[in-house]
Amino acid sequence: MPRALIIFNPTAGLKSKIDVEGIVRDRLSGLDYKVDLFYLNNRFEDEIRDFNFSDIDLVVAVGGDGTVKVATRTIIENKLKIPLAIIPYGSANVIAMSAGIPTNIRNALKLIEKSNKTIAIDVGLVNKKHYFLVGLSIGYISKVVIGASHHLKNKFGFLGYLLVFIFHKIKIKKLKFEIKTRNRNFWVRGNSLIVFNTLNYYGLKIKKPINFSDGVFNLYVFTNKTFISLLEAFALMLFYHRPPRYVLALDNSYFKIILKNPSNSCQIDGDYVKLPRIIEVELLPKTLEIIIGK
Hints:
The protein is built from nine helices and 16 strands. By secondary structure, it is of the alpha+beta class.
């Protein structure tokens, strides 16, 4: 009998009365999987550390992008050569949308079969420690993402981030970034730096394609001084590969980002993380297999 490891975040997603855990268990049981389920809570790290992965055939992430990030780390660090099934149950579900996975839980589960079709995607690694699939951000935009509480995201979904943008008075401050690629150096002052591996917010995409299977990251530094000019910067990204103002855009598979001082406004795939003033971001090409169905 094949075995499936489920990593389930019970606090993710919009408030719902449906029994997500039961629906996932029933689908996998119907495919003759023996199920091992771990809740993503404060006991997760201790419990997963003692787990025997030797005969696991499938990992299933039930949650948002942060849950998928944890499942990815679990697969890579345990050297598992098995696919990841993503069941979107978060506020943004960027990874699932980028891969064309339905955001409806039952429809996403239909993609899981005994003979699964998969695609290989790139994974980001920060300072040899933190994995990511969507991206890393530092500065003002990161503070907005971090400031969107579980309550806001559970009640309003992606709109929770927009509410923080509009109503939460976060001061726009400039940071000095030194950015090194393998062959060039850049110095720029800006309020936010973002490194994208993929980008798809409910079908909203910028002009420049950002794809998690193309072997490069897309880095952006926002240099605007006001909230209104930040909105203009976003609008320009919808129409220009390299916006004419407010945005520095770079593409590479490796970045070293050097800050004057460590920042308390760093997030990776939606989760706050404390990083030092020197941040190395490297791309692991096509490291993760995800199920996409037929």
